Amino acid sequence: MAAPHASSRYPWLVLSVTSLGVILTLLNVGTLNVALPVIAKHFHATATTANWILLTYMLFNTVFILIFGRLADMLGRRRLYIVGLTLFTLVSLLIGISPNIWVLLGLRALQAAGGALVITNTTPLLTDAFPERTLAKGLGINVLVSSAAQLVGPVIGGLFAATLGWRWVFWFNVPFGIIGIVWAAFTLRSLPSKGSNERFDLAGNILIFIALSGAILALSEGSTLGWTSPLVLIGALAFIVLTPVFLRVEWTSKSPLLDLRLFAKRRYAMAYVAAFLNAFARTAVVLLLSLYYQTVNHADAFTAGLAILPVTVGMLVAAPLSGSLTGRYDARLLSSLGLGLSGVGLVILIFLIGPHSAYLPAAIGMFLVGAGSALFLTPNTSSIMTTIARERRGIANGVRSMLQNMGQVVSTALSLMIVTSGLAPRLQASIYAGNAANLTDRDLQLIDNGFRLALLAMLLATCIGICASLVRGKKEAM
């Protein structure tokens, strides 16, 4: 079915608008992965607080993505996209003048809301603008732009953190955000909303936020406070109790936040599961290795940013290939192959990285992780979006984006928990101290073992993702 307003130029103009938004939001993630030790040192943050510099954005972004997926269908994508980009830009400016860590964490939550509005509306805007015959190419370029943003993100974050200071990691967003807002206002066309009379699912929003917050709290603080700590137990209990309540509420709601009927067909359910597991594995690799090179190899932030470039170089190389192959081969084959490549890369990293090992094998492993992820993303996204009715694309993409973000936030919390769980408090803090950590050979061995174990967990998730992708079944309209 041809998309509305699908003139020869309009789809590409929309792609130029969404590309600016994608670049800004993904640069934000990449820069922080590398600059985290510098920010933690500036605010004298503990290991627990340093965790939440990353987790606050990821947690709120994940929950907001699902909320805004519904609101986009109700209120219109153009309007919410521009609001999101404006909020993201303004808060980026304010974060740079944060007087303390608590203000920074609060602003990160607001920044997450802006980022969620941008990401939630990106894929539906492209799907509405592109005719189906060229949609895969548009989505492939979107992944390519995402890869480019992730390519330069760690380098920019490391460069600014090591030279101009951590504030410029955020202030860098501002001029590009202003350009993106103006360009979006002049370019994007409004489409009539078909869900404007639907109710907002307040109960679902509250339940998913508390349940997910509880899970992240338990995972992130378990190794630091102890698994029997009241705070950890309360978080775990909130997740265990409220998750089935949330699912029950959503199943009976007439206008659910999470439309569980999207999971009724195996192809969609397995595509969503695979999206979660792909994000789960790839996110941890970038974060873990950026911290590994700063802590174990005593690299500065800029050098660590350069060291992890092969992940995003792999995405940059494979994304155009993925876009061209998506229209010719079934998503089940391409997505599974992509996850398989990532799995091979993880095996290489698990066995061949070390404090004194050569860099080339690790670079090859990182390249394969990135290339496999890019090969996975376009066909998996296309298989979800092309057979969904236009009026449901916002919520369908919201579910996909939410699961990908959930994979990122759970991956971050779980991987850091695995790395630090077997370490004394002194060594737990050293993970966030970067090259300033004073470590003995015994300390390095313990930390190295923790990183390997975390990568092994990512490999297990990738293998499960391959199985989910393979059993999705043939394409069918919904």
Automatic annotation (TrEMBL):
Origin: domain of life: Bacteria
CDD domains to which the protein is assigned, alphabetical: MFS_MMR_MDR_like
Bilayer-spanning residue ranges: 12-30, 50-68, 80-103, 139-162, 168-188, 200-219, 225-247, 268-289, 301-321, 333-353, 359-377, 409-431, 451-471
Compartment list: Cell membrane
Membrane topology: Multi-pass membrane protein
Pfam families registered for this protein in UniProt: MFS_1
UniProt KW keywords: Cell membrane, Membrane, Transmembrane, Transmembrane helix, Transport
Classification via InterPro entries: EmrB-like, MFS, MFS_dom, MFS_trans_sf
PROSITE patterns: MFS (PS50850)
Major location (coarse): membrane
Major facilitator superfamily (MFS) profile domain span: 14-477
Gene3D superfamilies given in the database record: MFS general substrate transporter like domains, Multidrug resistance protein D
PANTHER family named in the record: BLR6921 PROTEIN (PTHR42718:SF46), MAJOR FACILITATOR SUPERFAMILY MULTIDRUG TRANSPORTER MFSC (PTHR42718)
Record's protein name: MFS transporter
